[in-house]
Amino acid sequence: MDSHHKQSPVIVIMVPLPVQSHMNQLLRLSCLISSHNIPVHYAASTVHNRQVKLRADDIDPLDLERIHFHDMPLRPIVFPSPNPHSSTKFPTHLQPLIEAFPLFRRHFTVLLHGLLSPTAKRVVVIHDALMASVVQDSVSIPNAETYAFTASSAFSSLFDLWEAMGKPFQIAAEVVPSELPSVEDCLTFEFLNFILNQIEFLKFRTGDLINTSRSVEATYIDLLEKVPGNKRYWAVGPMNPVTICSKHGNSNNRDKCLSWLDKQAPKSVIYISFGTITSVTDEQINEIAISLEQCNTKFIWVLRNADKGDIFAEECRSAELPEGFEKRTECLGKIVRDWAPQLEILGHPSTGGFMSHCGWNSCLESLSMGVPIAAWPMHSDQPKNAVLISEVLRVGLIVKKWTHAQEIVESSHIKEAVRRLMASEEGDQMRKRAHAFRESFKQSLGNDGVSCTELESFVAHITR
Ligand SMILES: *[C@@H]1O[C@H](CO)[C@@H](O)[C@H](O)[C@H]1NC(C)=O
């Protein structure tokens, strides 16, 4: 143990759910906590640690160096390839990961005992809410405390929980949106069961952390605290750098997309990305392509296949664009086939809209950059996030209706959505509101801002 440990009466162990969007959030939280001179350990499988570090290219390397990564060996898991044609967009190809959780549990328990030191006053385990079964053995350690981290919006967590528990308390009618996607439609049966099984292991937690901001979701955070069995919530989001100082700066290896954006008119480009764990069918890609050619709007389109369980395993499919599309749209847009610097793209003055699956990371990044959203939800919390974005916060519109999840969205419809978002009075209003969120996020991150005080209060609580 280095001297750092000896001085610190508190250590923190992070246990992320091993999918990109969740790992990313806990990594960022790790940096924030370790900046308070608290040692932070990050426990994931060897491949997942490698993945999250590789993709954290906007995090200061010095911040990363302070995190103690623990590689948990994962016996080779055979992952099926993501299937873009499956009847559900839920990433069922990742199911083998969940089946490996008993193994994760054993590794975690060994790690926990290894990190216990007589000088540690308290061991704080911050685990993804979905990893509750993995950290269950913390209960047997007298000075350990667990906190569940929710990587989704307070809005979707609240209504999922409310529904799953059989609506155990009243929620004022004006707070409940008219059309709320039901939790069963958003997940597979297996996954819903898996979630329900976690509830038992959540009983012992001391509190909850959630990556959202009271400046956006105060109503729903307050309601979450009232759910029977729930405890104190610390809303520690969004916390991303609102003014980005890219390490690529003016150097030669600045991403091609960004230098292309430099040459475009303000707010003229639509950024399109459907996240890391779903893939879109060739048929649907074709419709998007046709609409882009027709509406003559500048675009950056991230066209990747879903992450496999092991992203370093060989790639299997490359999405097909219509013949000649890239040549014909050379002056109109850019296709990105690998990792895109999303936050920097959203923060670029030329970007005026985001067509998104409404994963919570994407929603937060878009709001904190003041960019309105054309919502195209796929699964899990996304359909509810789309309601939050369009109906509640009114910073976006719906491209793909959840009730039509099984259908292909036709090019004429996509074209109309792009026009409304990018070139209409209605779209301008959304952009204004999104911009106001950006401003309130900036404030919330200032010294006395809500996000900052929540984090300070959490740190004070664990070091009490
Ligand atoms: C919350 O999510 C945003 C968007 O991905 C991320 O930038 C931020 O660092 C996350 N915050 C925490 C505390 O995890």
UniProtKB/TrEMBL annotation:
Glycosyltransferase N-terminal domain sequence ranges: 9-241
Gene3D superfamilies in alphabetical order: Glycogen Phosphorylase B
EC id: 2.4.1.-
Keywords, comma-separated and alphabetical: Glycosyltransferase, Transferase
Biological processes, Gene Ontology terms: cytokinin metabolic process
InterPro entries the UniProt entry points to: Glyco_transf_N, UDP_glucos_trans, UDP_glycos_trans_CS
GO molecular function: zeatin O-beta-D-xylosyltransferase activity
Protein name, UniProt field: Glycosyltransferase
Organism: Dipteronia dyeriana
